[in-house]
Amino acid sequence: MQRSENSFERELQSIGQTYDRMWRRDPEAIWGQLTAPSQRFHREGAGGGWWVAASALILLLACGGGIVHGLTRAPAAPAGVKLTIIPPKTRTEVAYKISSQYRDVTAKSTSGVPAKTETGRMQEKLQVLMVPTSDSGYKLALRYEPLTAVVDGTSLARGYPPGESFNQNAVVTYVVGSLGKVLSARATPPLALGMQYTGKTMRDPLLPPVPDKDLKPGTTWKIDAAVAAGTLPGLPGRYTYEGVVDGYFKVHFTASWTATTTPWGQFVGEPSRYTSVGDIYLDPASHLLERMTERTTGNGTEAVAAGAAPDRSVFQWTWQRSR
Amino acid sequence: MEPAVADEFERFYLRNEGRVGRFVLGMLGDAALAVDAAQETWLRYLRYVDRAEPRFDAVLLVAVARNVVRTMWRRTRPEFPADLTRQADVGSFEESVLMTDLITRLPYREREVIVLHYALDLSLEEICRQTKEPCSAVKSRLYRARRRLRAEYLSGEEKLYAAQRE
After folding, report:
1. pTM of the entire structure?
2. B55–chain A nearest CA distance, Å
3. Which residue among B84, B156, B157 places its CB closest to the CB of A2?
4. Each residue's pLDDT tens digit, A152-208
5. Do the Cβ atoms of B99 and A18 come within 8 Å?
6. Cis bond leading into B54, ω under 30°?
7. Do B47 and A18 touch (CB under 8 A)?
8. For residue A296, which of A267, A320, A268, A266 has the smallest C-alpha distance?
9. What is the per-residue pLDDT for A224?
10. What structural domains does chain B harbor?
11. A162-171, B115-124, B126-135 — which is least confidently predicted?
């Protein structure tokens, strides 16, 4: 086909539709592509600083019909949880307060304020965006942007050389239904896929050590609570590399952890002890998380969960309570 | 935010989300940056809502998006060729993708006037109001941008055929 004045004019006039098609190609594009099992952040100790605050926020939203105030309209649901986005005092500050029958959480993030976390010294920024969806629910995007993180000793165990700095940006998007229930959660970049590390993407799936051809099946390692945050599956315990199974690196884990929430995110108040046993499957070439299964018992409940990343970008995770 | 205002915001968002997307995508030529820019635009707009008069104003929204894009552009200046071509389905879409690529290569201000006019369907007068510039300046910039785009578009075809012959 010869390009002509006519085709030039046609393409130019329809450029809006072209952008629309590109923009809509991923209807969730504005919210970023998501990832890792969100309930990892619900666990006590699984993530420092803002992740904890963000998780708490979601937990409180998730713990049964809530009224969400702030940037959205209030759904017709019984009171119990209240989220207020506090108007920012500065351009980079976003703050919010969560009140519930259990406790109040006030969180504030200001760019440039250092915060100590398990992964080192971080300067972080959190942005919160709530936008109503067409089905009367909400999308809540929490943009977490540690501007700089300096690796400290505890991160060494995770494979990062001490003293190095790295940047990690992430958006966690929660879709909250009209009754305040969290319907889905995704994060970008995929937390299991590594961090942006001095300009390149690490293959490290945050599971130390990363299985590779030199790692012998049967190799076992422990992850303590201080290091578990940010690892897969984010739990302190014992991990065993079992070799290549069905074409994937298989890692079996047994973990014990304490949380104020159930594995599926229900807030229970008093810390309870849970035990999780499961398997992680990683793609041998990319070390990306392929799928994961887990059985968790504790606090009188037992639950199984399975997750998969069918397109390597979205990790979908489902819990089933068995008792 | 009052429930009534939130309702209005919802309608405003649904009405304009695509416009913001078109603008940031056209200006930045990078899907990941565009997503960031769109989020930032809405965040900033939400902060303005209580002070803005009128509260929900598409002109103000575009102004916010322009500021966000300008800031991001200064900070990142994504390298060309833009990654749009890699992220879009090609095939029948190829011609359209070529045009977006060419637009992304325009000088910043020429690109802006093209995106505002053709992607956001703003008239010349509306662009003048949006950019607070004399219409004569906007008009001549639009003319220059069109001329440059056209030349690139037509010569791109020749280059493509030459490459295919080789």
Report:
1. 0.43
2. 14
3. B157
4. 332 222 333 333 333 344 444 444 444 333 444 444 433 222 222 222 222 333 344
5. yes
6. yes
7. no
8. A320
9. 66
10. 1-82 (1.10.1740), 84-166 (1.10.10.10)
11. A162-171
The two three-digit tokens of residue A285, written as one number: 């070439």
Query: Token digits for B11?
Result: 């309608």
Question: Checking DSSP bridges between strand A237-245 and strand A114-117, what pairing results, if any?
Answer: unpaired
CB contact under 8 A, A16 and B100: no
Mapping DSSP onto H, E and C, the string for chain B reads: CCHHHHHHHHHHHHHHHHHHHHHHHHHHCCHHHHHHHHHHHHHHHHHHCCCCCCCCCHHHHHHHHHHHHHHHHHHHCCCCCCCHHHHCCCCCCHHHHHHHHHHHHCCHHHHHHHHHHHHCCCCHHHHHHHHCCCHHHHHHHHHHHHHHHHHHHHHHHHHHHHHHHC
Put simply, the answer to whether A8 touches B153 (Cβ < 8 Å) is yes
B-facing residues of A in 104-163 (CB < 8 A) are: 127, 129, 131-132, 134, 141, 143
> Residue B40 in contact with residue B47, Cβ under 8 Å?
no
How far is the C-alpha of A125 from the C-alpha of A227, rounded, in Å? 22
Terminal-residue alpha carbon distance, chain A:
65
Residue type for position A107: A
Instruction: List the one residue out of A259, A298, A261, A315 whose CA is nearest residue A59.
Output: A261
pLDDT band per the 50, 70, 90 thresholds, residue A126: very low
- A146: amino acid identity, one letter: P
Neighbour count for residue A279 (Cβ, 10 Å): 19
Cis peptide before A27 (omega within 30 of 0): no
Q: Which amino acid is at B155?
A: S
